[in-house]
Amino acid sequence: MVGVAVIGAGYWGPNLVRNIQATPQFHLRALCDLNVARAQEVLGRYSTVKATDSLAETLADPQIEAVAVATPAGTHLEVALAAIEAGKHVLVEKPLASSYEDGLKLVNAAEERGLVLMLDHTFCYTPVVQRLRKLVHDGELGDLQYVDSVRINLGLVQPDIDVLWDLAPHDLSILDSILPPGVTPVAVAAHGSDPINAGRACVAYLSIKLSNDAIAHAHVNWLSPTKIRTTIIGGSRRTAVWNDLDPTQPLAVYDRGVDWSENPEAKRVSYRIGDMVAPALPTGEALRAVMAEFAAAIIEGRAPLTDGRSGLRVLAQLEAASASIAAGGTFVPVNGGHL
Fold this sequence. Notes:
alpha/beta; nine-stranded mixed sheet; 9 helices; 32% helix
């Protein structure tokens, strides 16, 4: 069994604790948080897992081989780098770091030491996204034409990051997971607004140019009174529609679309109206699958599905989006030098 510590007992830390304890390959040995009372509360009165406020003490423990970092994004470089330098495998919450430069430091440090650096891009491990990935990669949707996603709700306005850096990593990591081989983001245009004077964008729209001339679009919003989570993936053969709030039929695949005749004598549009299929999907908690992948990557000595470089690809798009907003919404090239 791999000894693990969780760093951070705030919003997401308890979920990590629960799922690590349910993973047979892991042995949770410590929960580290500046608020020890909070850590003890998360663990429960009768837990034998150590609660501590000392990161140095946690990283010095030879029985701890891996850590899961659930601290604020601004601390990811300091905490995750200290863990890597202590020889620990690292699972870190999104985003990987607060900048592409900091994320690259983490990736290089882990690769130099032969350690696993994994992103907790939880949505990538849901049965729906795994099926979407297979549909795209197997060519069942045909050539990718567009991706459109909406992630809006009356959410928690973050004190240190805007809505792009808070919510868009979910959609960007999903996009990174499902894109077919050879198709990559090349430029991002973004627009944001702050109608409540929070000092940061609370509503934002991203447009992403892909290398195959397709476009991906994401709408993120903290201010919507209703919650909507939908993703549409349009292909030349079929279109997949994912409604994350529909527990009975989250995924539908439509054999419907628009065909264009290339006959020079009769160029015209024809509409294809076919069947809709709702694929059967397995059940299971995505975070449990995250932990299983983290354990397998450590034990098998391989890169996980959402490795450090997947985190870099998301950071590159986030930085391009922030630069685009600052430049008035123009397209900004995505940094691909280290991806």
